[in-house]
């Protein structure tokens, strides 16, 4: 929770695909901010709501630590860190309050275009490069597929050409990055978009959102893309 603070803090992405739409959404809600020199902390002028401009990957941790009350972040980032925390023995730390209708993409497994794709059983024994090792590992385990997960923080799509992996699991939006790397999507693990996120504890935060029905992220949207 935010303890002694009497102002709400919302974290959004500083730069990247969600940055402008997140700001536009909050502006449309009637919020405005005093311009700060470093542009990392924006003091709310119209309402007691301050903005933190950060890396998207940092947003779940800021929520967990109570540094901010709410965040606008991709479901993919939130779920990855939630699964990783629980795998490490932690309890649920985040909650997806609602999808926001922008930043749509999917987390997909993609294989070289030359592969004749039949089923996910073909992934057994392969090396899969990803920036989402927790989501991928949970999915592989659920499917009973023994594959090696190679964690990369970026440029995942080039890993097969570099010989670091056989296939990948990464975000797909337009599909242009996959096509440029001669890869094709074959399985969707998660449909993602920007979401409003907060702490999971019903008593924490000053958000007043406790009555809302949280959406439970789950692997219920899996299908075969091929
Ligand atoms: C994302 C993602 C893919 C790409 C997919 O990367 O990691 O690489 O976009 O988009 P497309 O299907 O429209 O080509 P992004 O460039 O946002 O940056 P990041 O990987 O550094 O986070
Ligand atoms: Zn990022
Ligand atoms: Mg990328």
Automatic annotation (TrEMBL):
Keyword check for Amino-acid biosynthesis, yes or no: yes
What is an example of a GO molecular function annotated in this UniProt entry? ATP phosphoribosyltransferase activity
> Which reaction equations make up its catalytic activity?
1-(5-phospho-beta-D-ribosyl)-ATP + diphosphate = 5-phospho-alpha-D-ribose 1-diphosphate + ATP
The UniProt keywords, alphabetically, are: Amino-acid biosynthesis, ATP-binding, Cytoplasm, Glycosyltransferase, Histidine biosynthesis, Magnesium, Metal-binding, Nucleotide-binding, Transferase
EC number(s) from the headed UniProt entry: 2.4.2.17
Q: In which pathway does it act?
A: Amino-acid biosynthesis; L-histidine biosynthesis; L-histidine from 5-phospho-alpha-D-ribose 1-diphosphate: step 1/9
Domain named ATP phosphoribosyltransferase catalytic: which ranges?
55-201
Query: What's the chief localization of this chain?
Result: cytoplasm
Q: Which cofactor does it need?
A: Mg(2+)
State where the protein is found.
Answer: Cytoplasm
Q: Does the keyword Magnesium apply?
A: yes
The annotated modulation of its activity is: Feedback inhibited by histidine.
Q: What does this protein do?
A: Catalyzes the condensation of ATP and 5-phosphoribose 1-diphosphate to form N'-(5'-phosphoribosyl)-ATP (PR-ATP). Has a crucial role in the pathway because the rate of histidine biosynthesis seems to be controlled primarily by regulation of HisG enzymatic activity.
* Entry's family note: Belongs to the ATP phosphoribosyltransferase family. Long subfamily.
Q: What is this protein called?
A: ATP phosphoribosyltransferase
High-level lineage: Bacteria, Pseudomonadati, Pseudomonadota, Gammaproteobacteria, Lysobacterales
